[in-house]
Specification:
The protein is built from 14 helices and two strands. By secondary structure, it is an all-alpha fold. The radius of gyration is 32 Å and the shape is elongated.
Amino acid sequence: MSARTSSGIGLFLLVFVGLVAAALIGTAVIDRPEPLPEISREATGGAQTLEDILRRQEGLHTGQKTDPEPNVDPSVGALSTRGSASDPDLWRGLRYDTANVTTQQQGPAATVLIQDGGMRWLEWRNGPLKEWGAWLLIGTLVALALFYLVRGRIRIDGEKTGHKVKRFAGIERFGHWLLAGSFIILGITGLLVLFGRIAIIPLVGRDAYAPIAAASKWVHNSVAWAFMLGLVLVFVMWVIHNLPNRHDLRWLAQGGGLFGGGHPPAKKFNAGQKLIFWSTIVLGASISASGLSLLFPFELPMFAKTFDVLNATGLPELVGFGTLPTEMAPHEEMQLAQLWHSIVAFVFIAIILAHIYLGSIGMEGAFDAMGRGKVELQWAREHHGLWVEELERKGKTPDTTDTSDGKGTATPAE
């Protein structure tokens, strides 16, 4: 155990014991039945003291102007600092909707003075969301590391031809890198905001973290538009190639050759790539919707309408959730949107980590497809043999003058 860990645990125990002691002392003071003695206010210049507050809570006279007066307006009631109750009683009444309060302002959030669900959101955000999300990402990295140690890098089995075949056009690579680059930025900035208090502040302090958090929020909100544009481009360009076919079943049955035994035949995209594609489209659309709801909570509420549709199907009651609420304040909409945004993001990041691994160090020749747009002909035959056969039938075979050193020009594959 490191010194930092030991000191952190010691500090936690010290604070915890102090809070418990304070709670016990406070309880003993409040519950004591004997009236408090008269308090001299010479030392405070006439300001009220803790004893004054405690006496007021018990309805005892303190000699202050805030004591009950014979002709006090009866409409004030107990929820008033002029009466026998304290300010906490007032806020407690507002929180549980027992205070007779009206507002002059109009608007979606004008009548919401205290939104009690915020505590449930905060506990879930700082508890299960962070804990489970962190373990998901850590578990994914550990699994990929173990897979690399056991399987090693997936090599090209046959002899390389020295010729290249065009895999992706320039516009396809632009759409991919626009989506990928913006996603990486969004993932990093989102994690900085979510885990900043527990991971960054202990290292650099609050003053240094404040501008980091502010910049991360601004970058996150700005780059989100590039992500959504890239998502649309990728969907339009590749949806036709990612429709399921009978070859996908064989690919899945053989595990795509990731564990040895050769690679099953596939067209331009194999079943594994199709799973990544549709995961990106579905999760990307969902995270974009929740993100827009967070940016425009009053204009684009997301969950009330969704819950209304789900209630109509009877599914929530079937799984034990009962009837979901269909009338929610903007605060509740934002809390649910933030939780959903983070949950989808964690799953999305875990999937993309696996995609990055296979597209870089995990598989020989895979990065060339998006890095240069061309791949080794032998790699294409092993991983996408049906696609190469289609090119040959269409007379779009690679030019044999296009060697691995970049000389020559390949006949376009698209």
